[in-house]
């Protein structure tokens, strides 16, 4: 296995690190696919770090005897706003296939800020979280295309962002009162269909 590297802290964007997704062209959206999907994570860094990522890509390509300028696909790009103007950041893409060629399945381990493992069912990684990625760069050739990808090996959640559920704070809510409706039904009578 290639040498594992760690990023500096960055801001997570579109994290899909607990469930593998695949682009469905017909549906025009990402869908869960445990067989052919992939885990992915984009991390936003200041543009000043572009040279460091470029060097990692260059070194990886050089080991494969390919010049940097011959690469068709890079694992990073300049971030642009809605009008196509540079924001001063770069977006670095990390990914991992959900299933290996031998039929075994992958998972992306997650740890908290103190490097304590987070049980898989308890991982809550939202966009806007401060994260560090552990990864290894990998050169590939697909047909006539050459590229370097960053395989995602693990994620450290340094500071979790709150998830956006779509709910808005209620101005008249009183945190100290118990205005909840008590459910007198027994569990066998409870209807969970809405």
List strands and helices in order, with pairings.
Elements: E1 5-6, E2 10-24, E3 29-32, E4 38-46, H1 50-63, E5 76-80, E6 86-97, E7 110-111, E8 130-142, E9 145-159
Parallel strand pairs: 7-9
Antiparallel strand pairs: 1-8, 2-3, 2-4, 2-8, 4-6, 5-6, 8-9
What would you note in describing this structure?
With 194 residues, this protein is mostly beta strands. The protein has one domain: OB fold (Dihydrolipoamide Acetyltransferase, E2P) (Beta Barrel), CATH 2.40.50.140. Helices cover 7% and strands 40% of the residues. It has one helix and nine strands, in the order E-E-E-E-H-E-E-E-E-E. Strands 1, 2, 3, 4, 5, 6, 7, 8 and 9 form a nine-stranded mixed beta sheet that branches.
Under CATH at level 1, the class stands as Mainly Beta
> Using only CA atoms, what is the Rg?
21 Å
- Unreliable stretches: 177-194
Mean pLDDT, to the nearest integer, reads: 86
Q: Please state roughly what percent of the residues sit in beta strands, choosing from under 5%, 5-15%, 15-25%, 25-35%, 35-45% or over 45%.
A: 35-45%
Q: CATH superfamily, please?
A: Nucleic acid-binding proteins
Order of helices and strands: EEEEHEEEEE
Shape: globular
Helix fraction bin: under 10%
- Secondary-structure content class: mainly beta
> Could you name the CATH topology?
OB fold (Dihydrolipoamide Acetyltransferase, E2P)
Q: Count of helical segments?
A: 1
Q: How many β-strand stretches?
A: 9
Q: How many structural domains can be distinguished in the coordinates?
A: 1
Through-space gap between termini = 49 Å
Biggest sheet overview: 9 strands, mixed
């Amino acid at each position: 296995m290639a040498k594992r590297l760690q990023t500096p802290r960055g801001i997570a964007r579109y994290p899909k690190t607990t469930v593998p997704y695949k682009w469905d062209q017909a549906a025009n959206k990402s869908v869960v696919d445990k067989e052919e999907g992939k885990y992915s994570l984009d991390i936003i860094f200041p543009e000043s770090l572009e040279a460091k990522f470029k060097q990692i890509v260059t070194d990886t390509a050089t080991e494969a005897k390919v010049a940097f300028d011959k690469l068709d696909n890079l694992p990073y790009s300049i971030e642009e706003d809605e009008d196509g103007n540079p924001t001063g950041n770069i977006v670095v893409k990390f990914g991992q296939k959900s299933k290996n060629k031998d039929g075994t399945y992958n998972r992306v381990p997650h740890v908290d800020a103190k490097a304590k493992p987070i049980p898989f069912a308890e991982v809550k990684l939202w966009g806007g979280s401060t994260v560090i990625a552990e990864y290894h760069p990998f050169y590939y050739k697909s047909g006539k295309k050459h590229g370097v990808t960053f395989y995602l090996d693990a994620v450290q959640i340094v500071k979790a962002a709150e998830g956006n559920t779509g709910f808005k704070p209620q101005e008249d809510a009183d945190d100290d009162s118990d205005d909840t409706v008590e459910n007198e039904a027994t569990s066998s009578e409870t209807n969970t269909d809405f």
